[in-house]
Design goal:
By secondary structure, the chain is mostly helical. Helices cover about 75% and strands about 0% of the residues. A two-stranded antiparallel ribbon has the order 1-2. It is rod-shaped, with a radius of gyration of 61 Å.
């Protein structure tokens, strides 16, 4: 058990164990408050014991009190004896505070915290702070198992929705590609028909052109014959 460590040593040790600096400072502050609360009654008792007047002091104070004069029958009375009044000495009073007043004054004095604490106490306070923060987190978030199951369900639902969208996209792409293929096939068929029609025209135009040439020659011969 590590006893009497300084604040810096405690902070370094707890940081090496993975504690956060804010948690360590909160634990040290709580330890200071706890130590002040524990030391407050003891300080009052020490003040009572320290400032309690001893029996000898009480006796000496009693001896200092003025004695009551006893009249002497052979002595002349003040009326028979002419006396010159002496100037009165200034009265001096010594004030001795009571034990309760001194105890209250001692309690009002701030208690300075000690520079070293019990390491085990600091560590226990840090653990309590961590547990409290964890309970607050659990209260705000809820059960981790339920939260994980809910997140898994939501993730699975998102995954299924993505798959459905992908299937729709694939179907749309297939439909578009099918239309493009049909258009390409139609264009190809039109090209084939145009080629076939061209061949037909060639077959028709060749004899027609030859006939036209023959008619031209016949017409030319008829013109020459008429001349």
């Amino acid at each position: 058990m590590n006893q009497g460590k300084s604040n810096e040593e405690i902070i370094q040790t707890l940081q090496s164990q993975g504690y956060m600096l804010q948690q360590i400072n909160e634990a040290i502050n709580q330890a200071n408050i706890k130590k002040e609360v524990q030391n407050a009654p003891q300080g009052g008792n020490m003040a009572n014991e320290q400032y309690q007047p001893s029996e000898e002091m009480q006796i000496s104070e009693i001896e200092k009190e003025p004695e009551i004069p006893v009249p002497n029958p052979n002595q002349e009375t003040p009326a028979q004896q002419a006396t010159i009044p002496e100037p009165a000495a200034p009265a001096t009073t010594s004030y001795m505070p009571s034990a309760n007043e001194m105890a209250m004054a001692a309690q009002q004095q701030p208690v300075m915290p000690s520079s070293s604490f019990n390491y085990d106490d600091i560590q226990s306070i840090v653990e309590e702070i961590i547990d409290e923060k964890w309970r607050e987190l659990m209260a705000s978030v809820g059960d981790i198992t339920t939260w994980k199951a809910q997140m898994a369900d939501e993730t699975e639902a998102i995954k299924q929705e993505i798959l459905r969208i992908q299937n729709r996209f694939d179907n749309l792409q297939a439909a578009v590609l099918g239309k493009v293929d049909e258009y390409s096939k139609g264009i190809t068929e039109i090209g084939s028909e145009m080629k076939a029609l061209e061949k037909v025209f060639e077959k028709i135009l060749e004899p027609l052109s030859s006939n036209i040439k023959e008619l031209a020659s016949i017409t030319e011969k008829l013109r020459e014959h008429k001349k």
